[in-house]
Structures are given as structure tokens and as C-alpha cells.
Amino acid sequence: MAERDYGYVATAFSGKSIEPFQQLTKRLCGEKDFYASDTVGYVNGDVSSGLHMTLFYGLIDENIDKDKFNDYIKGIQLPTLELGKLVLRQEYNKFCQILWVQVLDQHHVLERISEGFKQFEYEKSVQLGFVPHLTLAYVKNEYTLEDIIPEYPHEIEVEELKYFEQ
């Protein structure tokens, strides 16, 4: 299967909730800092306008009972997400860094929700381990965070949970 050839479940936020994170990204990064891949479409510099948290990636769409799956998603009640610090994390293939905001999961509620999707058919080889976060941008390897981080919201309300078929 090709890049993004799997279904995934992600949170969606209102535009008003996303705005402070778009502003934060613009304050922290200039155009020269962003990294965009020629081969991986979603690795495209500032991605804060599409702010989301992926709960599970790797679902095999054609093998999923859509009615059962949709009923399962409708039954999930996500809490307001508590946010932690800003982090730079090396991308898995090491061609760039990922600037993200940690999503705190002190009671492992999000982890349990993520694990629940394993009842549906998925591709084990693309499972990288669930690390709750909100990606703001893909930046060049030489990018560093400033010592003083501007203020940003420390919680965000989930508008809905969506299933993206590929």
C-alpha cells in the first residue's frame, strides 16, 4: 500500500480553537524554517491550519464493517484535551523535525481509546506507538526553539471525532 493508503481516526477542532495555534506557529517559525517533502504530501511546512490529533492510523478500509465502526466512534466521548509543552521531535526518517504540542494523558484515557481501534482490521507494520500530540509544523533539522515560548492555550475542546478513509 502507498503513502496514506490507510484509514485513520482523528479529532477535529473548531476554527476558533485552531487560531491561537496558527498564530503561535507564525511567531515561532519563519518561511525559511519550514520543511516540505517532495514525496510525502502531509509533510508540508506549517500544518497548523489542519490542527488535529490522530488517535489511530493504519485501518484497512475495505475490511471494516462501516456500520459497526461508525457506531463505535459515536460511542466515544473525548474529554477536553489538556496540553503540555512545545516539543521538537525528529521525524522517523530523519529528514526533518516535527514541532508539536504535547497532549497530556495522565490517566491513559486517550491511550485506551486508541487501543480500542485494534478490534478493527489494521496494518500492524505502520503502528509507531500512540503519542498524543498536535502537530504544528514540519521544520528543517537545523531549526531550534526559542528560549522564551509565547503563551498558548493549555486545553482545547474536541469538536468531533472523524474517520478518514483512504
Describe it.
The structure is a single chain. By secondary structure, this protein is an alpha+beta fold. Helices cover 19% and strands 27% of the residues. The chain is globular.
Terminal Cα span: 10 Å
Number of strands: 7
Give the count of helical stretches: 3
Bin the strand percentage: 25-35%
Q: Strand order within the widest sheet?
A: 5-4-3-6
Helix percentage range: 10-25%
Instruction: Indicate the radius of gyration in whole angstroms.
Output: 16 Å
Low-confidence residue ranges: none
Assign the CATH class. Alpha Beta
CATH architecture: Alpha-Beta Complex
H-E order? EHEHEEHEEE
Would you tell me the overall average pLDDT?
Answer: 91
What's the shape? globular
For CATH, the homologous superfamily is named as Cyclic phosphodiesterase
The CATH topology annotation reads as Cyclic Phosphodiesterase, Chain: A
Major sheet characteristics: 4 strands, antiparallel
Please render the helix and strand layout as text:
Elements: E1 7-12, H1 15-28, E2 54-59, H2 66-74, E3 81-90, E4 97-104, H3 109-116, E5 133-139, E6 155-156, E7 160-164
Antiparallel strand pairs: 1-2, 1-7, 3-4, 3-6, 4-5
Keywords:
Cyclic Phosphodiesterase, Chain: A, 4-stranded antiparallel sheet, 3-stranded antiparallel sheet, 3 helices, alpha+beta, about 170 residues, about 20% helix
